């Protein structure tokens, strides 16, 4: 009987640990880089300067989240997970989609310089990110 109780307790502990680990994940995992001005024109409202958030925190979406243009205006909460030479800053940043990334090897998100600086201590590098649409 004691063995049975011990096994049940162990199973419950394993389940609890797994549940706690899953809860820490906010959303999807991807990659990010920065991109520099000029930021206009875009694939969203073209030459409209008003589409760019005043705080400068915006992205060009990679094909995996572009959704045939439906991503325009979407907002994401993003945090840096890892990268070469430990570039990550603590915390999250909220960004808005204003364009489609048009590089030949686009990451999940290409961040404006200001948005990328909020996530990474190292500019012009590739980082791994966790993101969730809000």
Automatic annotation (TrEMBL):
Q: Which UniProt keywords apply?
A: Signal
Q: Does the keyword Ribosomal protein apply?
A: no
* Signal peptide range in chain numbering: 1-27
Origin, by domain of life?
Eukaryota
Instruction: Enumerate the PROSITE patterns for this protein.
Output: EXPANSIN_EG45
Entry's Gene3D superfamilies?
RlpA-like domain (2.40.40.10)
Expansin-like EG45 domain spans which residues?
30-134
Protein's recorded name? Expansin-like EG45 domain-containing protein
Give the species this sequence originates from.
Answer: Rhynchospora tenuis
